[in-house]
Amino acid sequence: MKKYRCTVCDYIYDPAVGDPDSGIAPGTAFEDLPDDWSCPLCGVGKDMFKPA
Domain spans of the chain? Predict the structure, then answer.
């Protein structure tokens, strides 16, 4: 699974880690994140992420 980088703050979403603080379990692919998921650091939406 690919990692994705936030183009605003450079946060890296790593599917192996997920986003536990947002209830996203490890092993969750970026494509499987809910549409309303946002960057945990700066709050922008999924559309502001690019493959890392």
Answer: 4-51
Order the strands of the 4-6 sheet from edge to edge.
12-13, 4-6, 49-51
Q: Determine whether the annotation assigns residue 46 to a binding site.
A: no
Q: Any known ligand binding at 4?
A: no
The verdict on whether residue 18 carries a ligand-binding annotation is no
Annotated binding-site residue? 37: no
pLDDT digits (tens, 9 = 90+) for 4-41: 999 999 999 999 999 999 999 999 999 999 999 999 99
Provide the β-strand partners of residue 7: none
pTM: 0.94
Level-2 CATH architecture, domain 4-51: Single Sheet (2.20)
